[in-house]
């Protein structure tokens, strides 16, 4: 059983490192560009699949 006079401290994030705050990449893309690139690749694959049969 726990003691009633025990003081509970709030949980902390002392051991967690946020790497995205520490490192800045030289290359960065907007999320919109990635979505457009994925859509273009999917369309190319569909075209290749249809014309390759």
Notes on the structure:
- By secondary structure, the chain is mainly α.
- The chain has a domain at 26-51.
- 47% of the residues lie in helices and 0% in strands.
- It has helices at residues 19-22, 31-51.
- The N and C termini lie far apart (72 Å).
- The mean pLDDT is 79.
What's the helix-strand series? HH
**Oligomeric grouping of the chains:** single chain
Shape: elongated
Rg? 25 Å
Largest sheet: none
Percentage of helical residues? Answer: 40-55%
The end-to-end span amounts to 72 Å
User: Stretches where pLDDT falls below 50 for ≥5 residues?
Assistant: none
Beta-strand residue percentage: under 5%
**Class from helix and strand fractions:** mainly alpha
The number of helices is 2
Q: How many beta-strand elements?
A: 0
Mean pLDDT reading: 79
């Amino acid at each position: 059983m726990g003691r009633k006079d025990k003081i509970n401290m709030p949980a902390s994030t002392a051991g967690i490192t946020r790497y995205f705050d520490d490192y800045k990449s030289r290359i960065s893309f907007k999320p919109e560009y990635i979505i457009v690139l994925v859509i273009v690749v999917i369309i190319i694959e569909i075209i290749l699949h249809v014309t390759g049969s």
